[in-house]
Write a structure and sequence with these properties.
Elements: H1 9-12, E1 19-23, H2 28-39, E2 43-48, H3 51-63, E3 67-72, H4 78-92, E4 98-101, H5 116-144, E5 147-152, H6 156-159, H7 165-185, E6 190-197, H8 203-208, H9 213-221, H10 230-239, E7 252-255
Parallel strand pairs: 1-2, 1-4, 2-3, 4-5, 5-6, 6-7
Helix pairs in contact: 2-3, 2-10, 4-5, 5-7
């Protein structure tokens, strides 16, 4: 039997009329994802602790003909998380169609040099803050019986990473949270998937692993022999939020240039 090509592909990757809440919009992968969501037609409600650069991202979206609003957000501060959720729900008029949690924080050092303050900060920004935010949004999404949640972890959370032990632990927690939440929300028509980036050319990465032998050795270990660009991670984040992935949930997608391979 001859298969007929699916001519609806453009429709299932179109986000026109959709609302997306995204964290970490001020720089790196979060900024690239906010821009990509807007280019796909979504209205972007973006949060970040860095107000100036977050507003600059929204300004760029609007300059390109897109729609977006900035709402200040500090994932280490419960009060700002609550204010962010309340503001987003009020401006959207209900539940967002998509939540993309992209914000993250890292500290590279031997585990024995960690302090409780480092643990607390990384746990709040990478795991507890996003969990609290989603917990607040979720009743609205369940009431509508549809929605997509995309979490950003790290391949460090899948395979570990020297000098990033506690960071890897928080990202492993994000992965486990994604899978469990996917099971709980499937009955409500909500999908929940996770992107696990490898080394990416972002301000966070460049601030933790500057130019030098360690960085050169890491790049050499990547089969594609280069760092990812933020937009390359953003493409996968946006794809997981489109109707093209309606039958995909509880999955972790590595975007690492082949540095890690899972089957």
């Amino acid at each position: 039997m001859t298969e007929t090509p699916d001519t609806s592909w453009r429709a299932v990757t179109d986000l026109a009329g959709k609302s997306v809440v995204i964290t970490g919009c001020a720089s790196g992968i979060g900024r690239a994802a906010a821009l990509q969501f807007a280019s796909a037609g979504a209205t972007v409600y973006a949060g970040d602790k860095n107000v100036a650069d977050g507003e600059a991202t929204i300004a760029q979206i609007r300059a390109g003909g897109g729609r977006g609003e900035f709402i200040a957000l500090d994932l280490a501060d419960r009060a700002t998380i609550d204010a962010f959720v309340d503001a987003a729900v009020a401006r959207i008029g209900g539940a967002p169609d998509i939540i993309a949690n992209v914000a993250g924080l890292d500290r590279v050092m031997p585990f024995l040099q960690n302090t409780p303050d480092v643990w607390d900060l990384l746990a709040q920004v990478n795991y507890i803050g996003p969990v609290r935010m989603i917990h607040r949004f979720l009743p609205h999404m369940i009431e509508r019986r549809r929605g997509k949640i995309v979490m950003v972890a790290s391949d460090a959370g899948r395979v570990g990473s020297m000098g990033e032990t506690f960071y890897a632990g928080t990202k492993g927690a994000v992965i486990a949270f994604t899978k469990s939440l996917a099971r709980e929300t499937a009955r409500s028509g909500i999908t929940c998937n996770c992107v696990a980036p490898g080394p990416t050319d972002t301000p966070l990465f460049n601030g933790t692993i500057p130019e030098g032998k360690l960085r050169d050795a890491l790049i050499k270990a990547i089969p594609l022999k280069r760092l990812a660009q933020p937009v390359e991670i953003a493409h996968t984040i946006v794809y997981l939020a489109t109707p093209a992935t309606d039958f995909m949930t509880g999955q972790v997608v590595s975007v690492s240039g082949g540095l890690t391979m899972h089957g």
